[in-house]
Amino acid sequence: MTDFPEETDDRADPGIPRRTAARAAKLASLPLGIAGRAVGGWGRRLTGQSAEEVNANLSAKAAEQLFEVLGTLKGGAMKFGQTLSVFEAAVPDELAAPYRDALTRLQAAAPPMPVRQTRRVLAEQLGRSWETRFREFDDAPTASASIGQVHRGVWHDGREVAVKVQYPGADEALRSDLRQLQRFSRLFQALLPGTEVKPLLAELSARMDEELDYRGEADSQREFAKAFDGDDKVLVPKVVASAPKVLVTEWVTGTPLAKIIAGADAETRNHVGALLAEFHFSSPARAKLLHSDPHPGNFMLLDDGRLAVIDFGAVARLPHGIPRQLGEMTRLALDHRSTELMELLRSSGFIRPGTELSADDVLAYLAPFTEPLANERFHFTRRWMQRQAMRVSDTRGRDFRTGRSLNLPPEYLLIHRVTAGSTGILCQLDAEIPARAIVERWQPGFAD
């Protein structure tokens, strides 16, 4: 006997398109489509349209295609799009608007699985009598993610729960997408100047297996929930049940960060920004973990003023907390102590043996990043982030050459990306926060 009637329709229409050739063709349409529109744009210029009008039209259509392809494919394609969405604050304003809308939509949008397929996954993961574990279960998903979708339900003990169900074929789709996206890394680099696209893709590939096993995510979420239990600033929902492809957690209701970014008042944006920074810097000290998927879809503001954090599929384990050397380097750069900074950078592996660099050039490259800590409060803006992105990506400038000569040791790669991503969200929020006090409290080596 089976819990479900025999059918073939949703077997032919799986949650993630799994045929490698079909997915590759869709991804290949991105550079081809953008190139084709560019040719058409040249034609429209010849007929009298201004360059500004043509470029705006091309950007809007490219952004729409980016959302359509990455969002529809889910898997690694959508995951990459969500990761890019954090860095849209670095894109110049005249190009950013279409991408801002398209990439923000990727944070919470994707076509749902057929109902019968969802129920089949639940039966495989939680047992044939899975429905008896729930008082209620809503077949319509409330949210979609890169490798799964979320349903609302009521557990047998009366608790409201969120049920995350992984798309069938997610593993194949992730591997195929990330290989294909590597081929187009230069295209995405051009679309988002100042963003290190190739390392982002490499990291997503390296952490793929962790994302696919919801049991590991459940373990991480349990550790975070324990560390922040009873906290007056942060709420981490407790895990109710878990399986390799299904995760059940307590349900939380709040205002998504994307909505706050789009239209909240300055006081609310500043409050959320301070909570986000506090969570980012305090987690390694409190939980010995770092939430490593910082995009607005993973955070909500609760009615009681706390920040709710969800989705712990990507987590860095830091048994000794954030390395003390990072705090020391930040302090030395802030204080313009270039000689001591160079010595620490060399001993920590940020400058390879035999690499010749000027201490003043290194300080000039790093010092602007410490600007948020120079005073009691700092206003994170898109304009500030754009300046930093263009400064380090200008191939004609000294900062570009200096940055390319520095080395990022593997153990710092994820910390660096998460900090950059969190900073990107602060700039999207246009938040003014007491960044210095937060870093002084939680970053070892900075204040002592």
UniProtKB/TrEMBL annotation:
Sorted UniProt keywords: ATP-binding, Kinase, Nucleotide-binding, Transferase
PANTHER family: COENZYME Q8, PTHR43851
Protein name: Putative unusual protein kinase
Pfam family, one: ABC1
Family classification: Belongs to the protein kinase superfamily. ADCK protein kinase family.
Source taxon at top rank: Bacteria
GO MF assignments: ATP binding; kinase activity
Source organism (scientific name): Amycolatopsis methanolica 239
SUPFAM superfamilies in alphabetical order: Protein kinase-like (PK-like)
Boundaries of every ABC1 atypical kinase-like domain copy: 105-337
